[in-house]
Amino acid sequence: MRRTTAAALALAATTALGLTLTGCDAAQEKAGDVFSSATAAVASAAEEKMNEVRDGVNAGGDVEAGPTSTDGDRTVAEITATNPKDTAADYTIMVNFRDAEGKFLDSVVLNIGGVEPGASKSGTARSNRTLTGATTAEISQALRH
């Protein structure tokens, strides 16, 4: 009787452990899906902001992203716009943050206004949420207007 009870307990424990691990995997998968959806929504919102700019011209060559660092719980990067034109200009810049493997993490839109002709001006791109691990900032799109 003891062997049967011990075997039944062992089987029950193994089954419970299997269900717990399966539940954990399902929870991780669901969390990953939610994270992916939220990340896609942030990217979409950034693209919408860029689409609101009227009379903007592609200015990717005018803008550079510096290295990332942390400011409190957010990742930041200094973005510099250099105006090659002969009149003052405003810049609207979409900055993507990526992890060490190049995976998209976040996207923000930064405005740098009143950049004088032949001059440079900087602004800080600040992530929408806490990013972990090594990150880089890249200019996804830049418009001069």
Automatic annotation (TrEMBL):
Keywords: Signal
UniProt source species: Streptomyces exfoliatus (Streptomyces hydrogenans)
Signal sequence extent: 1-26
Top-level taxon: Bacteria
Protein name as annotated: Lipoprotein
